[in-house]
Amino acid sequence: MTARPFHLGWFLQGSSVQAWGEPWTGNIGREWMYPSLFIDMAQALERACFDYILVEDSSYVGEAYGGSREIYLKHGLSVPRQDPAIVSTLLFAATKHIGVATTLATFTHHPYLLARMMATLDQVSGGRAAWNMVTGSSDMAARNYGLDGLPEHDLRYDMADEYMACANALWDSWEPGALVADRESGVLVDHTKVRSVDFKGQWYSSRGPLNSGPCIQGRPVIAQAGGSARGRQFAATHGETIVANPKGIEAMKAYRNDIRARAAAMGRNPDDIKVLFLVNPIIGESAQHAEERRLQRLANADAKIAQRLAHFSKVTNIDFASFDLDKPIEEGLRTNGHQQNLDTLKKMGAGGKTLRQAFTDYSGTGLSVDLCGTVETIAARMDEVMQEVGGDGFLFSMGDVSRRVVAEVADGLIPALQARGLTRTGYTHATLRENLREF
Ligand SMILES: Cc1cc2nc3c(=O)[nH]c(=O)nc-3n(C[C@H](O)[C@H](O)[C@H](O)COP(=O)(O)O)c2cc1C
């Protein structure tokens, strides 16, 4: 083995219709309503010994692009989208080892409801549940929940700190040893070990105790993706696995080092946080075949630039339909949504590049690093990248999934990584947190 092994995650672009109209998706009508594609995917990724699947979410129909829902509905862009906790339950039922990180936003669930749902997911999965902790990015989503809009970006994270404190108190409302289950004495639960929390914060309150009973893992694993300075501080405070998309090895290293330094400054062990970087490798039978597929991916991306910008509009609340694709990006663009994504796009547009060019570079062929080649050359490159960055793993973000895309990774690339001793060949532990902390 050349290096210590690294972790694997899979980014599932929402529990919704995948790649509508694309080849190899089998999407003919309503079958997206049934979970068979996701179940096949989860089983394949478990065969490949992934640590977890992250089920992304947002809970509104996009309309930031052109001020219309048309492009989102016509092309099935993050809509229809089912509830991620329900889909996560089905993934757990169909697997035994892999973790699932369910995205739930702080403004859509009261901390009590969230703590109870996550405890339930952790129980029914035997301790494999993670919560992808997000604060939301769109006023339109907030309005679906009766709010006027989302609070300002940094305030959302302040509120999320309090939210975490409330949820943690609820998970801790069952002390270790509270579950007795002693048939002889007839005691199921020791009532002295289950307490109210009487949490009263500025924004959230809850009496407790949690009626679901305790999480198997004590608390669910916390997944986070803060990108801004405030977001990174939040992620370093609470996150146990952090998913990030910095561009290039230097930026990846800087991001990870920053998270680790922030965590250490708070007295946390930085090794308890696994930073996974987004990748979307282009796998070919030969170098030439991979290059052909890369060109094809670029051509597809160019042909679908409006749809892709619509997605970008959705997470930034900026109407990219109102800009000329062939002019430089407007300077003063600001967002109350995903700030890191917009910052990266702006960097790509530096030097007066057109929006089309900047966006092509932003989302072109690679995410954190370009990976294009055969399974052997990609595995070797992933090894090099991890050694340079220092850890901790990759989050595969292959866009909308098809069984073909999943098989190329799970049954093509991962065995090549395993042969090099770079990723696990079996699950050592029963719970997600233990598997994440194994190396
Ligand atoms: C891999 C990844 C997955 C994410 N998943 C979601 C998600 O499912 N729902 C959501 O609202 N935001 C999601 N985000 C956005 C983050 O929560 C966060 O808003 C974003 O990374 C920008 O961070 P910032 O707000 O600190 O700038 C994701 C980000 C990344 C990088």
Automatic annotation (TrEMBL):
Its EC number is 1.14.-.-. It comes from the Bacteria. The keyword Oxidoreductase applies. Keywords: Flavoprotein, FMN, Monooxygenase, Oxidoreductase. InterPro entries: Diverse_substr_monoxygenases, Luciferase-like_dom, Luciferase-like_sf, NTA_MOA. Residues 38-392 form the Luciferase-like domain. The keyword Aminoacyl-tRNA synthetase does not apply. NCBIfam families: FMN_nitrolo. Belongs to the NtaA/SnaA/DszA monooxygenase family. This is NtaA/DmoA family FMN-dependent monooxygenase. It comes from Teichococcus aerophilus. The lineage of its organism: Bacteria, Pseudomonadati, Pseudomonadota, Alphaproteobacteria, Acetobacterales.
